[in-house]
């Protein structure tokens, strides 16, 4: 732990970080690909190629950017299949206990996701963890861009939280990009959308458990 006043404020990612949903993501991605007759993707290949904006991820797979019509078909298919499967996804190992322990210790944390806000809040609530966060923000609107501008708005709403005390914990390179955009730090977790190799190329700490992520986050701020 850092000295009093220098503990980290954690900004948690949701999909692939707190929510163990990578299986649902792969199934929904393959359902979207099937709409256009594309080859099915394995978890390993997904983690190797995934990036945001999502159309660029599809470009890596298709060899070209999808047309607007193709994008609309794939995006609709993905969300239809994903949200059906997301209902049965559990939290990542130890996530609920970690969140409770931090809150009980008087430490602050918030949740920022690119999942649509109207879908995010009900599912967080169903998992019984909404009150663990001082703020929960999902994506508003239809932008396919990354998390950086959402992070600006999120931090602006966190009264008294300084960017240098913020550590973003996520499963994607984009989480680190968003953290750097606001002057915060980041720790990346291997349980979600990226392979360890692709995460390690980002240049921030990479961990294999959320417990380790929290420990490293505190060290980053205390150090």
Automatic annotation (TrEMBL):
Gene3D superfamilies: HAD superfamily/HAD-like (3.40.50.1000), Putative phosphatase, domain 2 (1.10.150.240)
GO molecular function annotation: hydrolase activity
Ranges annotated as spanning the membrane: none
Swiss-Prot/TrEMBL keywords: Hydrolase
The keyword Hydrolase is assigned to this record: yes
Database matches in Pfam families: Hydrolase (PF00702)
Keyword Endoplasmic reticulum in record: no
Name of the protein this chain belongs to: HAD family hydrolase
Lineage of the organism: Bacteria, Bacillati, Actinomycetota, Actinomycetes, Kitasatosporales
